[in-house]
Amino acid sequence: MTCIIALLALAAASSGPAGAQTAVSRATVPLSFLQRAVPRTARSADAFTKVGIKKSGAGNGAGALSRTSGVAPAFDTIPYWTGQFSVSGFDSAGSPQSTWSYNMVGTQPESCRKTTIGAPIVPVTLDLLGPGGNVANPAGIPFTFSADATLAKTVVNSPVYQPFTYTSGTGQFNDQMMRAQFWNRIRQGADDGWHVTLAPQVKSARRMQIPFGSWYAVADGAGRPVAALVDVDVFAGLLFPLTAPPDDTTIIGAAELAGDITTRDISTFLFNNVFLFIGGDVNNCCIIGFHDYDAEPGDAKNGNHDRRYVMNFASWITNGLLPSGIGDVTAISHEMSEIFNDPFGDNTTPWWLSSDPRSGNQLCQNDLESGDVIEVLSTPVFPISMHGRTYHPQNEALFPWFANQSPSSANLGAYSFPDETVLTALSPSSLLPGCVPASP
Q1: What is the pLDDT of residue 251?
Q2: In terms of Cα–Cα distance, which of 346, 343, 325 is closest to 335?
Q3: Can you point out the beta strands (E) in 64-163?
Q4: Kind of pairing between the strands at 266-272 and 274-277
Q5: One-letter-per-residue 3-state SS of 151-204
Q6: CB 122 within 8 A of CB 268
Q7: How far apart are CA 209 and CA 267, in angstroms?
Q8: pLDDT attached to residue 368
Q9: Strands, DSSP E only, in 299-386?
Q10: DSSP state, residue 20
Q11: Helix, strand or coil for residue 285?
Q12: According to the model, what pLDDT value does residue 10 have?
C-alpha cells in the first residue's frame, strides 16, 4: 500500500497528459479488491460520524435528547415516540445502569394509528476527477458513477417501499419489522391499524465531484470502472453543509434549499456503487451506508425549534461485487431500519456482542443499531423476489434482543426479522465497555 501511494504521488506531480494518465492508472484497483474487502455500514465509533450536527450556529441541534421525564423536547423533525426498558447493564463509562430510554419513528404501538412519512430519494451521480480537475477518463471511459431516476425507480420498486408478505403480515419491510418487534403491544393476529410507512418520491438528481488523491476506482478486466472508493472525510464534507444556515455548495444543503427534503422526511441520498474508506487508507474499506441528521437552527417560522433533517447515504450495489450476498438494496434497507429504531443515533443499550460461529467475526457496541448486529454474520441478507427482480434487503435484529428479553416478546418469539433463524440467542449479559464480562 505504501508503494502504491508513493507512486501515485509521483505520477500526480508529473506534467502533461501522460503523467496524468499514469496517475489515474495508479489509482485503479482490480475487481478482486472488492472480494477481499469487508463491507459494512458506518458505526458510532467511526470518527466521521455526526458530521451533520457538528457545526456552529445550529442551536441545540448537536445536543442529546433529554428523556428523563419520558417526554422529549420539541424539535422540528420526523414523528417519533419515546419509551424505555429495564435491564441491568453498564453505560459507556462502565457505571451500572438499569433504565434505558429510546426514540423510535412513528407513534406508540398502542395508538392503533398509521404514520406515513415522506421518503424523498435524491439520486447523486459521482465523478472522480483527475489531476487536472477534469473527470478522469482513461482509455476514453469517464470515471463517472451515475445514479439517475431509472435507478431510483428500481429502488422504489424494492421491498423497502413496496408491500411484501412476511410472517407478521403484509406491508413495507420496515413497517412489518416494527410490527414484529412490538407484537406484544399490538392486537396480535389482526391488523389493528398501527403502521409506520414510507411515501417515496424521486427528487432532482445531484452531482458530487471527488478531487484527485481522495479516491480509487475499481475497474474490470477491460478497464471499465465498476465502483468508486472514496475517502470518507472528503465525501462527508461534500455531502453535508458545514455552516448554518446552509448554502447550496453541498448535496444536502442544495436539497434543503430547493425544498427537495424537509424536516418531516426520511431522506435517502442514493449513489451507485460508491463505497467509502477510512483514515486515508483504501484498505480500510468499504462503508456502504450510514444514517445521520443535518442539524440546522430554527427561526420564528417554526417556533425557533432546532431543525433535524433525518437522512441516510446508501449505495446501490451491483450484485456480485461484494461478498456474502450483499447487493442492490442491502445498504438502503439497513440504514432505513436503523433510522426506524434509532432516528437520532442516540439510543443507548446495554453492551452487546454479536458473534458469527462460522467466521469468528464479532462486533461489540452499546446502541440500538438493528442492522449492525447482523452485518457481521454469515447470512446477512434475505432475498425477496418482486417486480421482476430479486432484491437483497438485510436481516435486522429486533428490539427484544437489545432489551435482553427471554423469551422474546416479538412475533414468533424471534430475535431477528425477516429470517427468524438468523439470530437465535441473546448476547452475553452484564458486559462492561468493550464487551468485557463483569466480575461475578
Answers
A1: 98
A2: 343
A3: 80-90, 96-105, 114-128, 144-145
A4: unpaired
A5: HHHHHHCCCCCCCEEECCEEECHHHHHHHHHCHHHCCCCCCCCCEEEEEEEECC
A6: yes
A7: 21
A8: 97
A9: 307-316, 348-355, 362-367, 384-386
A10: H
A11: strand
A12: 35
Q: Are 34 and 277 in contact (CB under 8 A)?
A: no
Confidence (pLDDT) at 59? 47
Query: Which amino acid is located at 296 in the chain?
Result: E
Please give the grid coordinates belonging to residue 254.
Answer: 442544495
Residue type, 89: G
Cell of 329: 438494496
Bridge partners, 114 (sequence order)? 195
**Cα dihedral 281→395→155→246 (10° resolution):** -50
All three cell numbers of 212: 484527485
pTM value is 0.92
Burial 258-284 (b: 16+ CB within 10 A, else e): eebbbbebbbbbbbbbbbbbbeeebee
**Residue-by-residue DSSP string for 322-345:** SSTT--BTHHHHHHHHHHHH-TTS
DSSP label at residue 308: E
Find where cell 454479536 sits: 354
Q: Provide the residue type at 66 as one letter.
A: S
C-alpha cell at 335: 440504514
Q: Which residue's C-alpha cell is 449513489?
A: 271
Which residue's C-alpha cell is 420498486? 157
- Identify the helix (H) or strand (E) that includes residue 17: helix 16-26
Q: How far is residue 197's CA from residue 367's CA, in Å, rounded to a whole number? A: 24
Tell how strand 307-316 and strand 266-272 pair up: parallel
Which region, left, alpha or beta, applies to residue 177 given φ > 0 means left and ψ of -120 to 50 means alpha? alpha
214: closest CA among 134, 137, 286, 130?
A: 130
Backbone angles phi, psi at 373, to 5 degrees: -55, -40
pLDDT given at position 439:
78
Q: What is the mean pLDDT of each run of 10 residues along the chain (440 residues)?
A: 38 51 83 93 80 60 39 79 97 97 97 97 98 91 96 98 97 98 87 96 98 96 93 96 90 97 98 96 95 93 93 97 95 98 96 93 96 94 97 98 97 97 96 92
Distance CA 328, CA 334 (A): 12
